[in-house]
Fold this protein.
Amino acid sequence: MKKSIIWLASYPKSGNTWARIFLANYLANPPKPLPINEAHRFCMGDTIAKTYHKVAGRQINTQDVDLTLQLRPKVLAGIVGNNADVNFVKTHNIRSVAREVTLIPPEVTRSAIYIMRNPLDMVLSYARHYGMTPAVAVAHIGNEDNANAADGQSVAQFLGSWSGHVKSWTSPSPYPVLVLRYEDLLEDPEAQFERVLTHIGIPVDKARLKKAVEFASFKELSRQEESAGFIERPVQSEKFFAKGEAGQWKDDLDKSLIVEIKRTHRKVMKKYGYL
């Protein structure tokens, strides 16, 4: 089995979509920004329901978690079965085992890019995205059993807590993992995305890099969503590309929730410069 998957991994609302749209623009090298609703053609997700239906050879009940987990190895085998050198796959799954199924199997993995974001900011985007209060979101990201339930479009995703997720993806692995911080991407996107290209093994063209960064800018993504919508926006979320800033928590997050997040995630936050 070919090891061709490069995972674009993150906890939800941590910059995964931004990275995917940057890559799509760099690889396609279009004369104008690539439509955001076409970015999925360059990087598929690992929980898309229709791929599980296809592998099963029938319409399955996506709410049947045991069944979808049993099908997951076949879905991933189908991805690498195209014999391409590289297959970019987006995931929010923790790098662990769910019900005895390895979620990120080394035998199909070439490498991974992992993006983390300060949980104090991430939790605000998480709350908006899933249509819940910040207090509920704080409880979710501190829960080792946190998961996204299946729906008609996606099978279940196993997230775990924010700290557990970060530790799973940044621990020693049999393949290379590039670890990025969302805040560093904001501060110097050209330098950080150049690291992404080097990690993947794609030659870096400075002019092309600069253009792809501009085409994937938050301003451009927000403009496109405003005019054409975004197919990945959940129905309960008013907007997918809301603010994308760092430090928003200082004004928008209740002090008691700040204390709770720092208490729950102190060790990992400190390790990565968030405390």
